[in-house]
Amino acid sequence: MHSICFQATGVPRSNYIFDSCSPALAISKPINLRFCGLRKEAFGFSGLTHSSSGRVRFSSRGHSKKVSASAESNGSPPKSFDYDLIIIGAGVGGHGAALHAVEKGLKTAIIEGDVVGGTCVNRGCVPSKALLAVSGKMRELQSEHHMKALGLQVSAAGYDRQGVADHANNLASKIRSNLTNSMKALGVDILTGVGTIVGPQKVKYGKVGFPDNIVTAKNIIIATGSVPFVPKGIEVDGKTVITSDHALKLESVPDWIAIVGSGYIGLEFSDVYTALGSEVTFIEALDQLMPGFDPEIGKLAQRVLINPRKIDYHTGVFATKITPAKDGKPVIIELIDAKTKEPKDTLEVDAALIATGRAPFTNGLGLENVNVVTQRGFVPVDERMQVIDTNGNLVPHLYCIGDANGKMMLAHAASAQGISVVEQVTGRDHVLNHLSIPAACFTHPEISMVGLTEPQAREKAQKEGFEVGVAKTSFKANTKALAENEGEGLAKLIYRPDNGEILGVHIFGLHAADLIHEASNAIALGTRIQDIKFAVHAHPTLSEVLDELFKSAKVKAAALSHGPVSEPVAV
Known about the structure:
With 571 residues, the protein is of the alpha/beta class. The protein is 27% helix and 22% strand. It folds into three domains: 83-228 and 359-426, FAD/NAD(P)-binding domain (3-Layer(bba) Sandwich), CATH 3.50.50.60; 241-356, FAD/NAD(P)-binding domain, CATH 3.50.50; 435-557, Enolase-like, domain 1, CATH 3.30.390.30. It has helices spanning 92-103, 118-123, 125-142, 144-149, 161-185, 244-247, 264-275, 295-306, 411-425, 454-464, 479-483, 512-525, 529-532, 544-552, and strands spanning 83-88, 108-112, 189-192, 194-199, 202-206, 213-222, 226-228, 241-243, 256-260, 279-284, 311-315, 317-323, 331-337, 343-349, 351-354, 358-360, 386-388, 394-400, 439-441, 446-451, 469-474, 490-495, 502-509. The strands form five sheets. Strands 1, 2, 3, 4, 5, 6, 17 and 18 form an eight-stranded mixed sheet that branches. Strands 8-15-9-10-11 form a five-stranded parallel sheet.
């Protein structure tokens, strides 16, 4: 897998990772989350305002790497351009970059070979949230204890599978249409076809069986995203052995489904399937479920999301072979020990969902024409998302954002990276702080996080010589959570007592995905705990969970007179 660093780590997407040198290789290390970061235009709102995502550092210093001249051998750059900016890929990252480019006055085109919206809108975060909305309602209606506590009486809850599937599909269609219309209304040219780089500042695109078109641009952004990764030995038939792409269509609700991988994709689908009546078996390569989450949060989440539900699990095992159901036989899963590689068990289930992460979709981009070679499928980039060639030099005017570069596999991270690139090409140096980018898992209750986990923070502290403080608050002490009869939850703050710097925040509980942004914005702006303690929160609201969390932190007196923790923010 690509190297894990503090700037790029998050909660794992799965326990497997695509390796371009050995496409079938499964490596038991976590990779990152991907969630939706749609701008408001996706929901039919007009008018553009810009706010920076993540910490911005303004600097007059130039790039540290040399600019590559190797691309010149593939043809000279054009003297005039069709566009100021061409974006290859119309997912959330490409859409965010395109809208910001128009806002900055750039003539912009976006090339899309499939459908506008990419994975997030069509096969990811958008339809999955529709399914999770249904599972949340079902859980509430099915909980006799919960309803009785509120004084409510509800008859047996049921659902129409096709109606649920239609809800997810209709939502994706609506958002896709709004994305398309928003770009067209703002003057972004949508070019249909597969985009390929043919030389410096030059791209061809076209459909199979039709002549290619060649367009030029002063700058090019690669935003091609990712696809589901299926390890060697697993046969996907789209019916009984499926990926998340198939599962989101909800063509069936099996009685018993195995989910390979207990990262956020697996967790979310376990929430959906168990709410709709399925029994679930997790297959996890590492020794514990939910690897990569803060361990304390993961332990609580397992107690609430796994143990009381119709879920069992096998940890420390690989699924080396999965055969689809056929001829009256069930899906057969062969397991081996992850360490010894000895046969461990054989499972027979009704269906299997492969939630083993995603692989970058970068084949056929023509990167060889600008002397670039991918690393395990990912396009190498620097901290400003500028592409790096085989000699370690920066390729002029070529950038890569989102899942294709592997820095942080989150849809809203892709959008933030795209906005950062547009800032750079319009004359403002901009470096995105990935530690300020939040992530969330939309189970019931939700999990959210930003920054470092406690083990990561302690490792960093040991290397750099500072202490780590930890503060916690419970949802059981929050009036709003108790009014909702949803007191199960915990918020955790990881910080530096010597200067009040926020290192990480992790939340498990009601609306955790919404609550995390106060913490992520504080990290982005360099706000210290001793300052944010004075922020006022409406009462009674869930936001008071964060209020109490910051107030409970113990910052040393000497830090109170210190200046800002981080560099000033450029406005």
